[in-house]
Amino acid sequence: xxxxxxxxxxxxxxxxxxxxxxxxxxxxxxxxxxxxxxxxxxxxxxxxxxxxxxxxxxxxxxxxxxxxxxxxxxxxxxxxxxxxxxxxxxxxxxxxxxxxxxxxxxxxxxxxxxxxxxxxxxxxxxxxxxxxxxxxxxxxxxxxxxxxxxxxxxxxxxxxxxxxxxxxxxxxxxxxxxxxxxxxxxxxxxxxxxxxxxxxxxxxxxxxxxxxxxxxxxxxxxxxxxxxxxxxxxxxxxxxxxxxxxxxxxxxxxxxxxxxxxxxxxxxxxxxxxxxxxxxxxxxxxxxxxxxxxxxxxxxxxxxxxxxxxxxxxxxxxxxxxxxxxxxxxxxxxxxxxxxxxxxxxxxxxxxxxxxxxxxxxxxxxxxxxxxxxxxxxxxxxxxxxxxxxxxxxxxxxxxxxxxxxxxxxxxxxxx
Length: 416
Fold this sequence. Notes:
This protein is of the alpha/beta class.
């Protein structure tokens, strides 16, 4: 095996300029994901400025710290924060533990204004519990130079010509044999269920029992094991670099022209566009022959703390966050798939590219969210550990069986 060598949505400018706070303004506290340029605080303040008498304080934390910080705040069961960022698959967990306010009366037209891919993880038992502010999808970035060097015709941008995982294995093996520093394939987040789960989903596997707590018979089912055996083959035979859990390094490897096929989010493709000398195209994510094309989706939502002392003002801010103006301003800072249906048309000047055309197709046709279960955090953590051990050579069936048993134990506290 190889070793790694170390409504366009025109901005109503007058609407989205923060006004001066007054002594009578209600201040809402928020906690969310930090942007590299600190832009989130300004976006939220601008949104608040479109309402009457609301200002916002924004605590911004990096991804690795955000979840634990939110847990600490919510477990205190007091009024702070008034609103908080919700990772899509965590909506059910927060709901079951009494940390979210239903938003149906605040946004009664949610099903009409949001894309279904963005909205699905905000829904729990038919109620809207969190509102999306950005979405996601995954495409396969293809290094055309490596395909040419390997004498292989590269996959195209057309979803009708989507490659199978079997084709990825064959081409990836040939590319990985070009030299010791070249890899055939990699997932950007190779140990993340967000990306890896599309493999069993495409193979027809069910990820968890209908009760949301039973993993045995699902995570270790034949279809799940079969799909993850292909995942193991990628990493155990030198097609993909095993053990690369530094995500910035994984992306840089592709940007440096050392990976033939790279499953990445939209921002990865945008980064590749800015890399001089990199000849690449975007292609649809692979699927299993005889199976169904599936792509990951879901991203950041916002929810209201049910213990807030300012429910009316919090509701007004949520409505502002659902406005086309906010979504357009947010997109300009974080170019992820827009969550409003109309944005795909009104922002067409920005989105009329092969990358965004493919992203739109996947979101409308193949996007499948992660399971909406109370124990998603536990499920994610247990499966992530299993994926790492599978990359290191653990027997797939045995490791997934052990993961299922561990999930059963951890998830039972969420049984209804």
